[in-house]
Amino acid sequence: MQIPLQIIFRGIEPSEAVEARIREKVAKLDRFHSHIMSCRVAVESGHHHHHQGNLYHIRIDITTPGKEIVTSRERHENQAHEDVYVAIRDAFNAATRQLEDYVRMQRGEVKNHSTQAG
C-alpha cells in the first residue's frame, strides 16, 4: 500500500536526496502497521552555531485509524543531528518503535496498568 505522504522543509532548501530517503523510510513503516492513513514529515534546520553546524529537527506525524503518532526529535538532543540523514534515521527509528508499541497494544500483547485491582 502506498502511504499518502507530505514532506515539508523549513529553513532548509528542499532536496531530492532527502525526499528520497524519507520516502524510503515511510515505505518501510507499512510493514509495522498496514492501515496507516497518512504521514507528514517536517524537516527543519536551526540557526548556524559557532561551535557546531546546523542542527536538524525532524517531526513525523503518522495517522492510523485509532491513533495519531507524533515523533519529534529536537535539535538540542543530539550533536549527531548535524547530519540530516542521521536525524531522519533516528526520527524514523523512534516512529517505528511507537508504531510497534501501538500494534502490540491493539493485539493485547501489552498489559494495561491503568485497570489494576486495588
Summary of the model, kept short:
The chain has 118 residues and is of the alpha+beta class. It contains two helices and four strands.
Question: What tags apply to this protein structure?
Answer:
elongated; 118 residues
Main sheet makeup: 4 strands, mixed
Average predicted local confidence, pLDDT: 82
Taken as a percent bin, the fraction of beta residues is 15-25%
Give the strand tally: 4
Overall 3D form: elongated
Distance between the termini: 45 Å
Strand order, biggest sheet? 1-2-3-4
Number of helices: 2
Topology as H/E string? EHEEEH
Percent helix among the residues? 25-40%
Kindly name the structural category.
alpha+beta
**What's the alpha carbon Rg, rounded to whole Å?**
16 Å
Low-confidence segments: none
Descriptive notes:
The chain is 32% helix and 24% strand. The chain is an alpha+beta fold and 118 residues long. The chain has a 4-stranded mixed sheet with strand order 1-2-3-4, with helices on one face. The N and C termini lie far apart (45 Å).
